[in-house]
Amino acid sequence: MVLYYTFITFIFGIVLGSFYNVVGYRIPKGESLIYPPSHCTKCNHQLGASELVPIFSYIMLGGKCKNCNSRVSLFYPIFELSSGLLFALSYLVFGFSIEFAIAITFISMLLIIIISDYQTFIIPDEVLVFFSLIILIELFIQGGFSFLISSVINGLISFVIMFIVKKTGDFMFKKESMGGGDIKLMLVFGLVLGWQMSIVSIFIASFIGLPVAVFQLMISKNHKIESHDEEIPDNSIPFGPFLAVAAIIILLAKIDINCISNLFIK
C-alpha cells in the first residue's frame, strides 16, 4: 500500500506542478489563471487535452510544439517531475497526517515562489496570504489555539530578524540587498519551521546560492569581454528560490535546532 500511495501522491504532485507553473508565471504579471488558456508562447497555439498531460505530453511530442514545431523548454517537465517527487517524499516522511497536509501546502507555495521570483523577481503577496491562511488553519487543527499562537510568534520573530538583516545589508552595500517578498516569506517559514530553523534556512540558501552567483558573475564578465559592452547588465539573482530550496531540505529532512546543536557539540 505504501508504494500505491506514493505513486498516487506523485501523480497528484505532477498535476499540481503543471498548474503551479502557470500560477507562478501569471500572478506576478496580473494575468488571469483562466484566460487565455495554456498556449504555445511562440505561435499562440492553444494546447489541446493531449498536450496538457504533465511530462508525458512533452515526451510524446518530442519536446516541440505540435503546431509550429518550436522547441519547448525542458524546464517544464523537470519542474513537474520535481513537484511529483516532493509530494511523494512528503508522504513517505509524514504519512497521511496533518503534518503531511502542512508539508504539501508549504511546498506548493514554495514551488510557485520559485517560478515567480525566478521569472519576474516578484514574490506575490496573493500567494503568501492564500497559503498562509491555509497553513494557519492546519496548524490550529494540529495543535489547537495555543500551538497556533506559538507558531504565529515564531513567524513574527523570523520576520523581524529578516527585516534587520535586510536593513543591515542595505546599509553595508548602499543599495537594496533583498526584496520585501523575501522578508514576508520568512514569516511563513517561521510558522512552519520555527524561527530558529528559519534563520538556518538563510545560511543554507546562501551556501546553495553562492556557487550560482559566482558562475553567473563569470558568465557576465566573459560576455562583457567578448561583446565589449560599455555597461554591465543587471544580473541580480533572486534569493527566493534558494530560500525555498533550503526550506524544503529542512522540512523533508526533519532538521531541527537540536540537530544543528549536536553538530557543534560533537
Notable traits:
mainly alpha; 266 residues; 2 domains; single chain; 9 helices
Topology:
Blueprint: H1 2-26, H2 56-60, H3 75-94, H4 98-120, H5 125-173, H6 180-193, H7 195-227, H8 240-252, H9 257-265
Helix pairs in contact: 1-3, 1-4, 3-4, 4-5, 4-8, 5-6, 5-7, 6-7, 6-8, 7-8
Structural overview:
By secondary structure, this protein is mainly α. It has two domains: 1-96, no CATH class; 98-266, no CATH class. Helices cover 72% and strands 0% of the residues. The protein is built from nine helices and no strands. It has helices at 2-26, 56-60, 75-94, 98-120, 125-173, 180-193, 195-227, 240-252, 257-265. Helix 3 (75-94) runs antiparallel to helix 4, helix 6 runs antiparallel to helix 7 (195-227) and helix 6 runs parallel beside helix 8.
What is the total tally of β strands? 0
Number of helices: 9
- The percent of residues in helical segments reads over 70%
Largest sheet: none
Question: How many structural domains in the coordinates?
Answer: 2
Instruction: Compute the CA-based radius of gyration.
Output: 20 Å
Compressed to H and E, one letter per element, the order equals: HHHHHHHHH
* Portion in strands: under 5%
Summarize the structure.
With 266 residues, the protein is mainly α. The chain has helices at residues 2-26, 56-60, 75-94, 98-120, 125-173, 180-193, 195-227, 240-252, 257-265.
